[in-house]
Amino acid sequence: MTTEAQFRADEMRHLQRKSKALWRRVRAGEDTALLRGRIDRLEALQAALMGFPEFLAE
After folding, report:
1. Residues 6 or more apart from 7 whose CB is under 8 A from it?
2. Phi and psi at residue 50, in whole multiples of 5°?
């Protein structure tokens, strides 16, 4: 795996861990607009890393 590919894979894992942690907070009852906004932004970053940069424009 190339250095850039390793970096992208590491970044994706980091974003996934953060997203999972936020979703755990939502499931535990801490469901706020701010938390949902953070989740939306993380998911847009994940989509961009997977080749769909248009999700960042939303």
Report:
1. none
2. -90, 0
